Amino acid sequence: MRTIPYWYFNRTQWAGLPDEVPGTLENNELIRLKKVNANLSMQEVIEIYLPLARLIHCYITSNLKREMVLKKFFGTSSKKVPYIIGIAGGISVGKSTTARILQVLLSRWPMYQYVELIATDGFLYPNSILTERGLMQEKGFPSSYDINRLVKFVADLKSGVSQVQAPVYSHFIYDIVPSYYKTVRYPDILILEGLNILQRDKDYSSNHEKIFISDFVDFSIYIDAPNELLKNWYTSRFLKFCENSYINPSSYFHDYAKLSSQEAMLISSHIWNEINYRNLRENILPTRKYANLIMTKTYNHAISLVRLKKEQN
């Protein structure tokens, strides 16, 4: 088996890379980042995410130059298409936090006036369909997503379609929000985050050409962490959902909120072991090797190791 060549950076080495994001972070931006995750430290932003934003900017600049050369060579002009960044990893690893931090940081360059963020959760089948197909116990598995719809969404963006719509998922009701869509119009950058966006080994769509979401991703990030940490983070999130849902009967987690802490922890442990860990082991972790960059987390969601693939796709 061929060994994938990487550049390896420990935390100190990565923090020492150039981080020339335009200007300095303003107070209002620090507040925005704190809203992303209250436990996020500014040290983490400065040492990890600023260099990452700068690296992505370099890749985007290189991509734009290549496109200009090709347009000149072929004498053609084309519609504006977004640079797509994919962020993958297991549940509760911090994909959405990383995505929102990058959205804030990349928006600071004048050339990126519109940086959009889409979570693939919106492309899950509604609970009614999952129940009908017996897939509620495999929610989050590739088979629980409307892959054809998701592939069409990213394909339309890459084809220069002026306006596309993405369905929206609510963790409050644990389901797709009926008749509600997020409209995306000519973004400079699209950040796409989700569990299985790097899937290549199996085709879960109904097309016959084996087209994958990853075919449209320009730069991909996989966020990694030991299973025990992932389980602890999932449990903490599950308990928080239960706590916040106690006074609102409309919440999916309202019934769980009536349980004792010990009972809730037992349920979350069962869900992790029987559903989330199985999905991680069978479907998510095998896609890690396809990522351009792998960020490994340790306690408190701190990045301890960064691996950058030398042969970019």
TrEMBL record:
Its EC number is 2.7.1.33. Pathway: Cofactor biosynthesis; coenzyme A biosynthesis; CoA from (R)-pantothenate: step 1/5. GO terms for molecular function: ATP binding; pantothenate kinase activity. GO terms for cellular component: cytoplasm. Keywords: ATP-binding, Coenzyme A biosynthesis, Cytoplasm, Kinase, Nucleotide-binding, Transferase. It is an enzyme of class 2 (transferase). It is found in: Cytoplasm. GO terms for biological process: coenzyme A biosynthetic process. It holds the Pfam family PRK. It catalyses: (R)-pantothenate + ATP = (R)-4'-phosphopantothenate + ADP + H(+). HAMAP family: Pantothen_kinase_1 (MF_00215). Belongs to the prokaryotic pantothenate kinase family. This is Pantothenate kinase. It comes from Candidatus Erwinia haradaeae.
